[in-house]
Each structure stands twice: as C-alpha cells, then as structure tokens.
C-alpha cells in the first residue's frame, strides 16, 4: 500500500528554505508523491489591535501599509525562491496547486493564502500525509515555529522538521526514540513509510526517558509484523540531558532520520524548563519526525 501521496511544506520566511526544498524534493522522489508548498501571507490589518494607545488613525494606517508592503515583498521572494528551485529540479514536475496531481511520479506546486497561519496551515495539514517544516531557528523567522506547533497540536498528522543544511541523499538509517507514550506511538506509526524501505532501523530507549507503556522490545516485535527488521539499543543521558544522549546515540548509529513523540509534557513546561523535544529541535542535524 502506498503510504505517502501528499506532502505539505508551509513556508513563512526565507531562513533555511533551501534545505526544506531539497528535503521535500527528496521525499517526493522517494514516495513518488506530490509536494504542496504553501505560503500564508500575513494581513497587515492584524497589527491594528497591537498598535496601542496614543497613535492617531493616520499612524495606524501607515503601520498597516508598511506591514502590507513588507508582506508583499516577502511573498514575492518566497515565490521566486520556489520558481528558482523548480527550474533547478527538472525531474520533479511543477503543476498547478489543485487536484488531480500526477500519479506515479513526483510533482510539486506553490499555493498562497492570506490569513492566520495557525489556522490555515493545520487545515491543509489534516489532508496531507505529513507536513515538512523548515528548521525553526530563532531570529528573524521565529514565526516558522508557529507552523510547527500548529501542525503538532492541531492537525492530527506528523511533522518532519528539516535540518538546517540540505540532506541530498535518501534516508537509509532510521532511529526511533521510544518512551512508551501515546506520542511515541503516533511517531512510530508515522515513520513506517521510511522504516519499511530503510537499510537499517534502530529503536533507542533509556530508563530515564521511559514512561508507563510498552517497552522497546515490544516495539521491535511490532515492527517485525510490518516486515521491518530492527534492533534496540539502550542509551544514557549525557550530563542528565536525555536529548543530548539521544542525539549521540543517533550519531553512533549513523542515522539520517529520527522519529519521536513530541511534548510529552506541556509545551509551556518544555519552553521554560527545557526538555527532550526542545533539545532535539535546537540541536538536531537530522530530519526529525515528531508527532503527538
């Protein structure tokens, strides 16, 4: 059964855009799937309630006009970046952003909407097999993390976070970070599309990471029912940092993809105190499939 037919790639800024395009094309080829690139334009009028007291109507109008100009400029640059990538990727057909999409060969499209990103992105993600998100660096494009969190919390579909640097080869070695939670189980189901054709698959587990639920041995048994041979390896936290230990175990394996559950604790707690999800997001150099 074909497991991936449509990949959503929301683009909100220019940071790390090339790495996301390259990985999206990589996945489109792997699954003979359609890569739907989506840009959500901000609405300059959204800043009006944030303008604050003491501003005249004319000042607010100028702020809105300035935001509109900046939004238009960014949208043009993102579309130009897509068109440039499409011209450099002749093996993937660029098609209009509407069905029917080509079957049995990779394709990609560009679509643009205006409105609240946290509503539009998960709306489209719900009818995609997974959503590929550019690496959410802090800085100018902090809104890129809004797309990630919207997908994780409001789409019911897994997200794959692209690394900062382009991954130009096919995924061959898959690691699954397992801790027995419902979030980890969702990630396990999501990564089957890659694991089923990978050269090697490894389940990584750690006593300090494990929660109440099935253990790694049972995960290996489950994978075998899907015809996937996997081994299991216990890793250790490094300086009490489970995320750091997990990434070190991935590196030891030579992994080029990691799958794991996201935010087993609340997002607020992870942002304030840190956590495995946060460490992986900030430090991973691999594509990471996350689900919750």
Automatic annotation (TrEMBL):
InterPro entries on file: Universal_stress_UspA (IPR006015), UspA (IPR006016)
Transmembrane domains' residue ranges: none
Domain of life (superkingdom): Bacteria
UniProt-listed Pfam families: Usp
Residue ranges occupied by any UspA domain in the UniProt entry: 172-291
Family: Belongs to the universal stress protein A family.
Entries under PANTHER family matching the protein: STRESS RESPONSE PROTEIN NHAX, UNIVERSAL STRESS PROTEIN HP_0031
Stated name of the protein: Universal stress protein
